[in-house]
Design a protein that fits this description.
The protein is mainly beta. The protein has 6 helices and 35 strands.
Amino acid sequence: MNAHRYVSLLLAGAHLALSQAVTADTHHLQLSPLAVESTGPLGTLPSEQDTARELRTIPGGATLVDEDRIRRGRAANLADAIGDTPGVFARSRFGADELRLSIRGSGISRTFNTRGIRLLRDGLPVTEADGNTRTQLIDPLTAQHLAVYRGANALGFGASTLGGAIDLVSPTGYSVSPLSLRAETGSFGYARAQARAGWIAEDGLDGVAALTVGRDDGFRSQGGQQTLRLYSNLGIQHDEDRQTRFHLDLQDSRVDLPGSLTRAEFRDDPRQADPANRDVDAARDLRLGRLAVQRGIRTRGDDTLTLGAFVQHLRMDHPLPFAQIDSSQDDVGLSLRHRLHGQLLGLDNRFTWGALAVTGRERNEQENRFSGVVTRRLNSASTLELYADNQLALTARTTLVTSLQASWADREEDVRTDNAAEGRRIYRGLSPRVGLLHRISDDIQLFGNLSRSLEPPINGELVSEDGSLVRQQRADTAEIGLRGATARASWEAVAYRAWLRDEILVFQDPDNPGDTLTSNANRTIHQGLELAVRWRTPLAALGRPDDRLTTSLNYTLNDFRGRNDSLWNNNRIPGVPRHVGRIGLEYRHAGGFHIGPNVQFTSRNLVDFATSQSASSYALLGMLAGYDSGDGWRLFLEGRNLTDRRHAETTSIVARADNDDRLYNPGTPRAVYGGVQWDW
């Protein structure tokens, strides 16, 4: 399917949406071209309503995941929270909290950790200085809500990578109940509990603290995990125009790694582990300490200045079949964000500018189990970004959005013990964006933008297999979309096409499965369609005027391929399925009870660049039921993969697959989870 067909589909969707808007109820959700700032006491953290208004000022794909969506069922990891968000591919690699995460094909061939997406906590990076993100450390239960900015739509946060950014917005004493207790349990020894407290003092202090503990034996041998997490923040309201907030995050996360299976092993017994992983008790154990501070100042009228700083320390113990890896990572960052309101050429205008500076150092020691050789590395990374975003209201309904980011990145891999490959390179460039946002009616927006993203390699991918240094990845992207909300329906539809140069691709070395090879492709294409629709039907015709039936569809088309590549021609790039989606149906009783089935579907997933082998397509049947008392307590019962379908959740990636290659990561079989939450 080419870009012209994407546009045709989108225009057809616009026609349908306009027709529904005419016949829908008279209730309207105002979609203002410019965000309306709060006139109350200034805070450093936005509310859900503030974030929702902000997302409607973006001329591209962006999604809000509210607290109800996060907590409606099992909430163990980021995949539970955003796994069905359009444009996002989020799947557990081995059944635990460590994920395979990609947006619009970002880091498409990277099968552990995440590259190409900036993970933020309250606008400050959780992603390390070189661009590497460890999803194992993201706990959705410590977020008040999440915002997903796909692609260049994250430029307003200084994120200019292909995948964009995910921002976890923290709760405060003002946004949570004084005490909340939550417990979850389920199949394969899964148990998770959280105690959260919030408070507001008369002297302008407020705070929140959450302690979360979890355990999961896993459905595979060598597949368990244990977690202990403490998150807290303290806010000081100096006056109506100034607030300071401190954040503390402490984590101990221990995840066993069962490893991938061959095709025959996967078919024979998907619950088994790679024997080599089992023999060395393979794991990824992380301990994190993070301290952040933010200062918000209202400078004039609705103009705001936000300053931020963070420091984090990470220790990793990582036994693998081929090596024992021990490392420590230290990162420090500073940020500035200044928003100004006024007029330009007699038109309403909002101008935002900011800067982000992050530097980090990793000490890595790797002992080869076969040769006994110990390699010590001292890797360093620094990133500096300056960005500006301007929104000019050309008319009462049309806004012109222009953005520009200048980036500078220093990457160095320094080997201290032997003659292993090392090197240093400085990357720099400009990322512009221009977009239009048009309000067709009070309920419907049409938008589009053109942008450029830049992405230097992370330190682990800096040096390619021939010893040369990897080049910076660049993508020019065009997207067009439609979103809206009425009394009965809400929708978002986006089509995009990205022309990439020097895409960074990583795959397993077929001659040495413990090593990976990194290279730059010449020219590649990423294009797709992102769709989210919810339709609410009151059941008045059945004599239940306060009950409703909600139908939902989330769908992503991923079309990623080479452009006349000298080695792989126009083959599809492996790593992310072409079709991913979820269909759901929910009956909600006026008394607070709800129940409904859902189907998650995924097309076949290629495992090699030669496109010779793939994991099969699958559809998983689920069911979610719950009860919200309205008096502070709620229950849920969730069934997943109820037909017990054998499937590969994710795969490893090689150049050309062989039947003896361990590439398949089995997905969870039939499982049932339940939970209860009390709020006082």
